[in-house]
Amino acid sequence: MRIAIASGKGGTGKTTVAVNLALALEDVQLLDCDVEEPNCNLFLGFELEPVEEVNCLVPEIDPDRCTLCRNCASFCKYNALVSLPKKILSFPSLCHGCGGCSLVCPAGAIEEKPEPIGVIKKAPCGSPLTFLCGTLNIGKAMATPVIRSLQNHIDESKPVIIDSPPGTACPVLEVMECADYCVLVTESTPFGFHDFLLALEAAKALNVPVGVVLNRDGLGDSRVEDFCRAEGIPVLLRIPDDRTIARLYSEGIPFVKEMPEWKKKFEHMFGTIKGLACKNTGVQ
Amino acid sequence: MRQLAIISGKGGCGKTTLTAAFSSLSENAALADCDVDASDLPLILKPQVINRENCPGLELASIDPNLCTGCSICREVCRFGAVLENFTINPYGCEGCAVCTVACPENAVSLVPRVSGQAVSSITRFGPMAHAKLDIGEEASGKLVNMVRKKAAELADQYCCKLILIDGPPGTGCPVMAAITGTDLVLVVSEPTVSGLHDLKRAVELTAHFKIPTVACINRYDINKKKSLEIEAFCREAGIPLLACLPYTDITTKAMVKEETVIEYAAHWMDSGAVEFANIVRKLWEEIEMRLSESFEKETCSRALKIRKS
């Protein structure tokens, strides 16, 4: 079973929920798919080992073969190839790796070479948690291939908890699409509610069942709860607006470690999710 | 015209709360909400929309079922897995690269335009505002940010504003770069957490790259004073003036629930904590205004020198 932890935007507590849930359970896999800003390990502190380099195929032009017909440059939708009077210039950082340029080149002058765009790392064997994370190299714009490669490492024999990227753009949909259940983390404030509706819209578009974790509960108002009640969306857990939890977060300590009573609450939440995901999608 | 951008390495640091507060303190500013993924400034400022414009995104492949013979060549050439088994297109997967259109032997695939979001011009109680909504699953957000900034500049011209206040997107990616290029000053909002300093460093790297004068403030500084000192030390070393340390408070949320800026909230509800907090924000704003006018003076001085020399 795959559980994606998402929210309409950053700073709502996705990583907190993902890490604490994973630590509260036994024998699960935790995946940090927020490849632009993978923060889970700040709270876990593993010595990560690289397991895979993620590449994008970018064009390399053989100037001896190139006839300067400009087919490639006019075909490229991402402006990764620009034709100059005597040369075709390529900008690998803009390339999406679609392979179109080599397809349309009549002279066979384009060869595709792998260019590293990110790396997959994992916690060493024998760690208390199976943890994997992907990191997008700085200056690269292609988060989705890194997320896809990371998902290839999913071990189907265990429950998987996935920390999603923020927002509602392509990378989040890539994660939600493969999930059996989506936990939306939010605060009950006007900003929180607004961003929650965006995330909900994305989950609905993909037909993934959702539940809500209310973070900083007690602050703000009841608008998220009222909405959830009316729409039949379960509120799975409430994390109060607690200074101790905020302080532990600021120090990079998962609060289940210092507040063991929370372990039970996360275990209970996992049980609820299992029941709900079964009912909705028929998975075990 | 001056431009101030408010950014932070990640979301949830208080950018929008501060931008909203500044909008109620500044006289004669236009606003640009460049967080097009999750635009929250309108929730406080209640804009009245005067104009909307679609932002074109990447195109989308479309297969004509009458021409398609089901040969699967499009599925083989698509590197994004966007052609589904029944020969329809998954819009969230398709990157509009057009490879399928040239590969299809039946000419059954074409590209159709797609809208990635809307840029909106509005009027608020504190002046004109440009904002946007990015559609679900779309990614051309840098483009939409540029559109918002263009609209804000037009509004500023139209309403004779001397300043544009930009609420930046989170992160350090393409949309942030689009939000800060050409601005006169950047305020980085930081937090004393394990990721806070890391995110601040990345944001400062970015502003240094674009050679934009940068100032910083720490939000919720008292949640971890040790980390706050680390941030302070970094700022000192990097030559970034640290203009304010804002305390951990529920005032910002209370004001948000009332759909008011913290400045308005303090004035309306006579809450002593709120007044104190509003005063810290006011002082921060005065510091920023001073720096904005300083750089303005510097600029006019150097211009005057140039004229004299020529």
Structural class of chain A: alpha/beta
Number of helices of chain B: 11
Helix content of chain B: 40-55%
The helix/strand class of chain B is alpha/beta
The name of the CATH superfamily of the largest domain in chain A reads P-loop containing nucleotide triphosphate hydrolases
Number of strand elements of chain A: 11
What order do the helices and strands of chain B follow?
Answer: EHEHEEHHEEEHEHEHEHEHHH
Rg measurement of chain B, Å: 23 Å
Strand order of the largest sheet of chain B: 3-6-7-2-8-1-9-10-11
Q: Name the chain pair with the biggest interface and residue counts per chain.
A: A-B, 51 and 53 residues
State the major sheet of chain B. Answer: 9 strands, mixed
The number of helices of chain A is 11
The helical percent of chain A reads: 25-40%
SSE topology sketch:
The complex is a heterodimer of chains A (284) and B (310).
Chain A: E1 2-6, H1 14-24, E2 29-32, H2 40-44, E3 49-61, H3 71-75, E4 81-84, E5 87-90, H4 100-104, E6 110-122, E7 130-136, H5 143-151, E8 160-163, H6 170-177, E9 181-186, H7 190-206, E10 210-217, H8 223-231, E11 235-240, H9 243-251, H10 255-258, H11 261-281
Parallel strand pairs in A: 1-8, 1-9, 2-7, 2-8, 9-10, 10-11
Antiparallel strand pairs in A: 3-6, 4-5, 6-7
Chain B: E1 2-7, H1 15-25, E2 29-33, H2 41-45, E3 48-56, E4 60-63, H3 73-77, H4 99-103, E5 109-112, E6 115-124, E7 127-134, H5 141-158, E8 163-167, H6 174-180, E9 185-190, H7 194-209, E10 214-218, H8 225-238, E11 242-245, H9 251-257, H10 262-269, H11 272-309
Helix pairs in contact in B: 5-6, 7-8, 9-10, 10-11
